[in-house]
Amino acid sequence: MLVNLKEILKIAEEKKIAIGAFNTPNFTSLHAIISAAEELDLPVIIMHAQVHEEMGLCKMEEVAPMMITAAKAAKVPVCVHLDHGTDLDYVKRGLELGFTGVMYDGSVLPDDENIANTIQTVKWAKEKGASVEAELGSMGAREGGDGEAAKSIYTDPDEAKSFVETTGIDALACAFGTSHGFYTAAPKLDFDRVTKINSLIDVPIVMHGGSGVSVEDYKKVIACGVRKVNYYTYMSKAGAEAINGKTYKQFHDILLDAEKAMKEDVKKAMTVFAGK
Ligand SMILES: [Zn+2]
After folding, report:
1. CA of 231 relative to ligand 1 center, distance in Å
2. 161-197 confidence digits (pLDDT tens)
3. 83 is a catalytic site residue
4. Ligand 1 mean position to 248 CA, how many Å?
5. Rg of the chain over CA atoms, in angstroms?
């Protein structure tokens, strides 16, 4: 069942849980995630990241129809989301392709430009019945990158309030200690900051860099108001580890083994995000 980001996050708010948001740059990850969600009977967000096109993994025009078809056929609510759209033109194309949620990421731009571009994205999304996530603060390197290599700037609670009110977004990605990619040391999360932001804004908080966070910390941030957790690196790692050191005669057997391992990893993550 295809739903938009606002609708799926409403379910999360009602149940006081977070919805897992996973990147699907290929059929293998798409199958793993949808079947995990159906088995657990939980809503899920599937995402295409602009950077995965830049890395040569998949093109948005090719992957979007596959994602939308899978979402429509699924037995659970599924939002088809554009992750870290950094170019306005790319975000606009995503909305035209039928994404029901888009993240415009202008976090590296000066505030006034980030605000203006986010407002434009909200306008386009509304015309299509889609919802918008935007980012304030910075979590460093993007999906597939090395989180330790880039600087992280924590989200300021008062700026978050004004940003949400000015732009009319549906969800806010905040920086409070997580980063993308692999961690070399356990992340230290600023729970007080999340609680403060949550008390000041009336849209759900999104946590990026979900891989490598402890179960205990997930539970705490969800109690503080996080309603969407972006998770990719460890799912991808689980797929790689499943085939490490094995020899295969058929390529499709590699995909099947990786899919099985990714599905189990996604199920574990979704179970924690759902407070089970
Ligand atoms: Zn992210």
Report:
1. 8
2. 999 999 999 999 999 998 888 887 778 899 999 999 9
3. yes
4. 33
5. 17
How far apart are the C-alpha atoms of 191 and 197, rounded to whole Å?
A: 10
pTM: 0.94
> Based on the structure, what is the number of domains in the chain?
1
**76 Cβ partners below 8 Å, 6+ apart?**
1, 37, 38, 41, 42, 43, 44
Catalytic residue of the set 83, 105, 190, 265: 83
- For residue 197, the CA-to-ligand 1 centroid distance in Å is 19
- Look at residue 16 in the predicted model and tell me its pLDDT: 97
Q: How far is the CA of 84 from the centre of ligand 1 (A)?
A: 6
Nearest to 228 by CA among 168, 172, 156, 157: 172
Measured distance CA(241)–CA(171) in Å, rounded: 33
Sign of the four-CA dihedral 219, 220, 225, 231: negative
Which residues, including other chains, have CB under 8 Å from residue 223's CB and lie 6 or more apart? 16
Phi-psi region at 23: left, alpha or beta (left = phi > 0; alpha = psi -120 to 50): beta
CATH of residue 221: 3.20.20.70
The rounded Å distance from CA 253 to ligand 1 centre is: 30
Q: 86 is in which domain, residue-wise?
A: 2-273
222 pLDDT band (50/70/90 cuts)?
very high
3 state SS of 172: strand
* Mean pLDDT score, 45-61: 97
List the alpha helices (DSSP H) in 142-250. Answer: 157-167, 191-200, 215-224, 233-243
The one-character DSSP state at 139 is -
Tokens of 58: 């998949």
The helix or strand, by DSSP H or E, that contains position 29, with its residue range, turns out to be helix 27-40
| pLDDT on residue 147 | 46
Return the pLDDT at 152. Answer: 65
